[in-house]
Amino acid sequence: MARAVVFAYNAFGCLGIEALRALGVQVALVLTHRDHPGERCWWPSVAELCARHGIAHEFDLDLKDPALAARLAGRKPDLVCSFYFRHMIPEPLLAAPLGAWNLHGSLLPAFRGRSPVNWQLVQGVRQSGVTIHRMLRRADAGEILAQQAVAVHPDQDAIGLTRQLMAVTPGLCRRAFGDLLAGRARPWAQDQARASYYGGRKPADGAIDWRWPARRVHDLVRAVAPPWPGAFTALAGRRVEVRRSAVAEDDGVHGAPGAVLADGSVACGAGRLWLLDAGLAPDDAPLAMQTGETLG
Predict the structure, then answer these.
(1) C-alpha to C-alpha distances, 245 to 57, 101, 221, nearest whole angstrom
(2) Fewer CB within 10 Å, N- or C-terminus of the chain?
(3) What is the pTM of this model?
(4) Rg (Cα) of the chain, in Å, rounded?
């Protein structure tokens, strides 16, 4: 029976662990994170999954501790896996006969780095997917073991795309790791010329610039919609949180960027936007906009 050491967190961590178990892999140890008290944790718990199945698990270890590599090697893993673990894993922890593999929420080499789901929606992509790739010192740059693409609807939000990726992850993991265990896997190198990299996003990155085209503002709104921190603007000095929007039909109606128009839509640098779900922070009071008022 093959053995694995797994670094895992959130729903994808649970899906990856269950896929390995379905293949008969013995998960010898799971390293995970404690939930942050200030975060909206909509996902299932890796720790609770491990407890149900009697899998040894530990929290938030110091990955740079020289003793950790020897301790993990003592588990004699045939492979090392990372399923949405939040930190880069140092090279000394990646040694295993069948390699060390990471699950990433984009079609690599595009959208390497942090927050790939959010960045893809910000950029308005129409195709996303999940990639399993070899872990190296350089983030998300290793050989690809397997990929699965999904179509992205132009109004899809971040939680919707996340759930699409979750739906294809178990099958992808079973196929990829099944081939690896059977000696059928044929990893291929990434095309470095097509690579793109994005850093982590902060709540402040949700600020709306009404000089942008309406489609770009809409893409930002859906990219950071709840349970992410959300897009925001201001009205008369009060913060306005925008959770859902729609691009208005181009009927020739125009206005200065951020202006509230007679039909209740908001003018953008090009086109205009409907605010379908928005409220005034911090108490989420109803948003009542008057014609001629300006957001921003």
Answers:
(1) 42, 38, 7
(2) N
(3) 0.94
(4) 22
